[in-house]
Fold this protein.
Amino acid sequence: MINKDRYDENKPLDMHNLQFDIAAERLDLEAWIVEKIKQPRREFSVRFPLRYDDDHTELLSGYRVQHNTLRGPAKGGIRYHPDVDLDEVRALAGWMTWKCAVVNIPFGGAKGGVTCDPSKMSQREIERLTRRYIWEISPVIGPDMDIPAPGVNTNPQVMAWIVDIYSVFKGYTCPSVVTGKPVEIGGSLGRLKATSRRCVRIAGSSNAIKD
């Protein structure tokens, strides 16, 4: 029997582990399988300098966690937020693995982020941040390996910068490195509103069931 008191519901990684442990217990998974698919397959932590518009420079921390790639390339967003840390990214990457598996699409789970406060940054600073962060993780992402997407405080413009700098890294144009990019460079129609529409439909379905 799982002791839920061991987990802190305010910590994303604790909640991820609790949910996994409950599912593993109900499925009666063997111990080695539990260890294989509970922990991330790969983790990347990077430190890089960002020059701000006032010419001062600060070292920022960035992360990319590839939780699982057994079903296909890893898939998951990038977030820019002051609370981003490795444990949060680990949890989000794991949840991406479960989401892709539940809807039966050929992707694994990943997530990335940078610890920063974009609400206090100019557009030029966010662009410089994006280009430097992606340059640091470029060796471990790509259409056949790990495909980033928008997340908290990132958007199609950020994805466009990612396409640009990743293409420089590879030496040829590679728009398929991300999803959620502008339609003008190969993005999908409706992608920007897809998440909110999904929430509305789920809420509508829940109300219909109650009625």
User: Anything to note?
Assistant: The mean pLDDT is 92. The longest strand covers residues 57-68. Helices lie at 12-27, 31-38, 86-102, 123-137, 156-170, 194-210. Residues 89 and 111 are 6 Å apart (CA to CA).
